[in-house]
Queue: 2 jobs
Job 1
Amino acid sequence: METQNENFEKLYAETFNELYEGAIVKGRVLKIKDDGVIVDLGYKREGFIPSGELMDDECKTLKPEEEIDVQVTGFYDKQGFIRLSRQKAAAEKSWSMLEAALESGAPVKGKITGKVKGGMSVNIGGVAAFLPGSQIDLKVVRDADLLLGQTHDFRVIKLDQKGSNVILSRRVLLEEERSKAKSATLERIKEGVRVNGVVKNLTDYGAFIDLGGIDGLLHISDMSWGRINHPGELFSVNDRIDVLVLGFDREKEKVNLGYKQMRPDPWLGAVAKYPAGERFTGKVIGITDYGVFVELEEGVEGLVHVSEIDWIEKSKKPSKLFNINDKVEVSVLSVNINDKKISLSIKQLKPNPWDIVRERYSAGDRVKGVVRSFTDFGAFIGLEEGVDALLHISDISWLKHTRHPSDVLEKGQEIEIVITDIDAEKRRMSVSLKSLKPDPWIYDIPGRYGLGDTVNGRVSGIADFGIFVELGEGVEALLHVSEIEKKHDEKIEEIFKLGDELKARIINIDPEARKIGLSTKTMIG
């Protein structure tokens, strides 16, 4: 008894004389299933294309009644279908196309499907081809994954159908395109011409622009009339921009480009636009120890020198007062077109506190102030107008020898003082603490102490040249080393200690020099 398969074989042998394994025939899509496609081959013959034998995404793109080419791969399967393949039919046609392309040099279109050792695999109408890494692009491709799934034109450079070996090159086509573009670019490029290009690469000093087969350098100094720190602030790789040819060396194929030159130089109208004395708002674009750079408009910036920031806060660094991109109001002092410099001021927008001081105060006035800071030579006292006055160390006390102002005063302490001098032009003021009271050297000490008087005192200071003795109520006298009874090699600090009580004789009084001299040599008992 004949099996079902044998019956099918006999039937197909009688009726499918035109079909043979490997034949490429046309069919009509009947039904699309999850595992493949049923195809009507005519004369009540049906075939089946497994999903694995379809072209990319055909399960989604094929529609019923659509006519397609297929290759016969077998005469029946378990369901009685002729076995078919879309991929092999396409590959068969593709091989013919590849042979023609190899001979003519015509480009072929293919899709990059994967990475393989030494290069990438490309699908050309169902034929797997090899794209060597050196033939992918004009330059080394750092991330080949970005090319996966892309479709490009390729040149067939080697073909062996028996060994199913196809080698492609994309680089050859790109070189030919670049050569054609370069020739066309060289024909039209010349100094002063406006051209369009693509940003190819960015560096710290500029950008390289592909003008079409030839690269030009756009230096950072030719990008903007304003200040930029890096080309990336204006451009990104692959940006398409218009540039101006500033210079062209045809022999060396060297092109210098400009971007800012396509707009007028903003400095040309700066004198009229920014007259001295006028007020403007700008943006802080640079901060240094000597001042602040303020952008008035793109390409026009001025310097607020540290001396023009504030009438008062002169000790603070600009970096403590400003941040980049701060909006500030400034007054124009002067404009120098030749050097492209504008001098600006912030303090000129505020009242000069020294003008207020000149109107409000006079020498001899008693005022109150706060101790702001110390130096070795005195203390700075802040008045309510924000002006600092100098209290010299010599003006702290009529009598007491002050070694440092911090021995008498504290920061933040409010004190009353007398103004002794005002120089508003030089912005200087001197004050005195001791002038709150009459000078005791004139009104008191000459009547209280006389030559030859014996006095009691306490050691208040020790120096190499002698000791200071406090006689009382802040009066200090000097006991010189030459007036001290001591052995030849005996040191002063071995004889006296701070706070020691002693008796001495006055041997000199000089009210003008404010000095009293003592001696212990002639003391008895």
Note: The chain has six domains: 4-89, 105-174, 189-262, 267-349, 353-436, 440-519.
Job 2
Amino acid sequence: MDDLKEIEALRQELTQAGYEYYVLDNPNMSDYDYDHKLRRLEELEAIHPETVTPDSPTQRVGGQALEAFTQVTHRVPLESLQDVFDFEELEAFDQRVKGVVPEADYVVEPKVDGLSVALEYENGLFIRGATRGDGQVGEDVTENLRTVRSIPLKIADAPPRLIVRGEVYMPKKVFHSLNEERERRGEALFANPRNAAAGSLRQLDPKVAASRKLDIAVFNVQFVEGETFSTHLETLDYLRDKGFKVIPHYSCSQVAQATEHIAEIGENRESFPFDIDGAVVKVNNLSQRETLGSTAKFPRWAAAYKYPPEVKPSQVVDIVVQVGRTGVLTPKAVLTPVRLAGTTVTNATLHNQDFITEKDIRIGDTVLVRKAGEIIPEVLSVVLEKRPQGTQPYEFPKICPVCGAPVERDEEGAHIRCTGAECPAQLLRNLAHFASRDAMDIDGLGIAVVENLLGANLVKTPGDLYFLKEEDVAQLERMGKRSAKKLLAALEKSKKQDLSRLIYAFGIRQVGQKAGKILAARFQTLSALQRATLEELTAVDDIGEITAQSILDWMASPQSQHLIQRLEEAGVNMTAAEQGSDRRFAGMTFVLTGALEKFTRDEASEIIEARGGKSAGSVSKKTTYVVAGEAAGSKLRKAQELGVPVLTEDEFLELLK
């Protein structure tokens, strides 16, 4: 088979496999085979780039990052729905409908709690996708929507033009996995799947959106050219036949049946892969919809039933404190079991000490509990009349319940953190950060390997990494002798990293990459930094009193001193590299924007900083130069407005000569 025929065959095979997996939920190809075939297609398309088409399965991984989203005016407005909050209001809606079209019947659908989008197709090819926005104008998120595997990039036997509406969501399983991963990395957690979906779909880098594994439920034909339909149910059948993942739905002739289906959806909400925030009741007949029309805000032919939040009493049996991977101490109420939103709840988050103090929650109290956003159980209030005698106000521990190190409160928030550099609760996150690319850059030491090392009890501190034995590492899952040898070589190489990277790798609060470089340049050795006083630290540019105190506290901790001792024993470099004689950019600030051809932004930033300059993320009057590559956007416009000199990549290279 020649390359072109193989490309076409692979595309068809992979497209069908993706449809079976993501839309039908009935895969007939193993993940291994899919990945193998996709890699082969990528190789062939690299050889024949002229054959790459927008609907190729290879185009779902995310392309080049965008500067900003452009606006899209919707051909057909994406209307919102009028809410009803009980069955009496739903019956009133039915009476209004039947007063105009007495023979109306309905379709009931779960109301997916996600982000509404419009998908546009021309001659069967997906050309554009936009968020709802204000209903009239949304944002063009086409490149991010291409990464949603259940959206067909091409449909067969298509009309000249088709616009469909759907709700992009993050599956609940993906949401929980994503938050677990973010917790490992010390990143802020998403509050709920809707926030996660919205944040993912509005990422300027489509590769980030692709990694979030978003899904979609399509529920409406907005516009179609060359096709006619009589009912909403016909349009849903049409969309399913065209390969779309269609919203679950129920047909009913009377409003009484609609209420039964709404109750059924509410009772079974846990069985849906997505969160719901209600159920939608729609008139089925499309001509009747036209007769009913719309108000200035809502269509008269649909209503959104909102489920009342379940609030039930339970007793606080205990309050326990957990230490997260970022060191934050989080209190949790242990409750007598209570059934909420389809699941049995036995504990609820208490957020922080301020939350407990404000609501005066005590062990033994009867409290009212609900599920916030149908996901996280939370305590609403205390039933004071049921408070037992002798209860005491709850106070946070003064030391970490895991490692015994002192705890401290954030200066700018309500969090209380463990200060231990070797706290076992934080070890996974600390090791992953220590090994990350911007820190010690230990190739091959990702989260999965770190988890293996911890599971085998081979490390208890980042310093232990440098004392690993090849035979022990080789025994780990998915490692082997060759991988073990490579990891140990990467560890050996990392010993030579500059002091600035080591300082950043420690994970000291308030000390990022920039501060690590500044501190290394000022103190030159780690021992000098250890001896630094508050006055000496605050005298350094960009090091404020809060950051300086964090450094002092971290250096004074026995766990930190033990870590430094282990690293010294391993021979890790603790000296700053000598500054080069080339300081031509000293006192200058550069901002990089657009796509650079000759190096990445990180490489360009390193070049600037190696010559004494600063690389900033935003343009201001203090910016010396903006270096603009292709597709430069808002930063270039800001530079032009402020009169900041703009360099092309070639002009920037001239400065380096």
Note: The two ends are 51 Å apart (CA to CA).
